[in-house]
Amino acid sequence: MWRYLFFVFLAFMVHSTDAVRWHDHQLCGNTTQRARGCTTQILGREHADIDSCTIETFPANSQECKKMQFSPIDSNAFIGGVNLKPYILSDRQSGYSVNYTVLNITFTNIKWKTMKFRFQLAKPKHLQNHCRNIVLSNEVTVNDQSVLYYDCYWSTTDGNYTGQSHYLDFEATDENRVVNRGQYYFNIPSAQMLSPTVTEEEWLPFLYLEILNDRMRLHINPPPPQLNIAGYEIKVMKEADKGTQVDKVTILKLKNTTKDVMYDYSLLNNGSYNFVVTPLHAKCQAIGGKCLSVESPKIVITSEIRSLNVCIASITALLVATLFAYYIVLRVIRRYWCKDYGLALVPGKIPAPTQVLVIYSPVNRLHAECVTSFVTYLRSEYGFDVMFDGDISATSHGDPYIWAEEAFRLASHVMYIVGPTEEANIYNNIYDKPIINAHRNVDKLLLTRLRSDRVAKNCKDVLNVFFEHSDGEVPIETKHAKVFFLLKDWQKLIAYLSKNLLPKQHIMRTEKGKNFLDDLAKAKKVLSERHQC
């Protein structure tokens, strides 16, 4: 009956990898107690300080829970892991059995001090909700391997909520009062899909959508261990005037069967979208076979950009005139506002180096090593002040968030280095494996910062750099920036980063360059004097 417990703390002991689970049945009980202690679920029964961890409960299906306030969806890069997974629980009551779908939330790599969340039926007129607020005291230290479980939200699988769409809203606040916000959207699965006896021909995965500012992220729960699922066919469906149409089709191979599969889809246009996922196995061929599919809930996307495009399409003449005027204004702004007067050459003064912030996705180890070599070369041979996430460990604070804010503030150029294609969640060799360290998601944080900074008047130069192996996606934040292909555009790239400085000015930026110019000056002076004699 361990599934009744509310929290589980995963503790790693010296020379041991066994998980220790502390059981407590009181936290899921029906009680009017508003605040309950959860310290023993985190630190063990030997700790009795109720103030170290508390959980605030709200009446189920209440207006109080419905009115719980959440911040706008912005970023959840530093929230840690929040995973959703349902399972079936049979409860015998007075001689008959009732099946419940229990929605388990697993919090991993906990970075927060407070976490509030709400399950809610996605029907405005229905008051079906469940709210909690978890508070950890500042004295509690939780390591990166921590895992907390919450599984007190039960839905009757034999009732009316099977297949109904639900939202899970959650918001975390860390010790520095930085807020991270997330939202999941999902359908309650049927009991048959969660049964331990389900077959490959019957099984359909549990899906939940993560709603972000610029994209939808599809999460696919792993299959039961007895099933041999080879992969998934993912269709992005969009409702148009002529009905529903397929917007994109992707085949994802599955070789890691213990973790969620994630698939991102960029949101560029208005419309109603959803995903259709088909599990692929030996008895189901992608073409012509008897394959079952499951659909995600539909999400309606609206944006001012789409409305603006429709308006502009009807006034083409105005578009041309506006673009021309916009071009002239940009030229004036760039000439007079964006000029870096600190680089004006003063006799005897070394020009300040260009400050370049490098952003890249570390999901591929070989690509990350190429980025490190590239940065090292630009620093040593060209004297550029290049900043990238490899510098974080050398800072006094070691905080990725502080480093990212400071680096973005200092940078005059933002360079995104495009990586290889991400095909699936499996890796054929060590070089395909992502780099897992304490500085994960720095690229997402910097891209979010770049997106929010578009309205600022600091005139950062943004560029995309492609290596020879770069065939991955360009993020929407840099999609329309300048493009350089290496090594073909090497001279153009250096000239762009150097702001077209004269060769002598550029050479003066490095120690080797200064020594070289000193040697030239010395040789010129000595040889000139010899010729005069």
UniProtKB/TrEMBL annotation:
Keywords: Membrane, Signal, Transmembrane, Transmembrane helix. Residues 1-19 form the signal peptide. The chain crosses the membrane at residues 307-329. This is SEFIR domain-containing protein. It comes from Pectinophora gossypiella (Cotton pink bollworm).
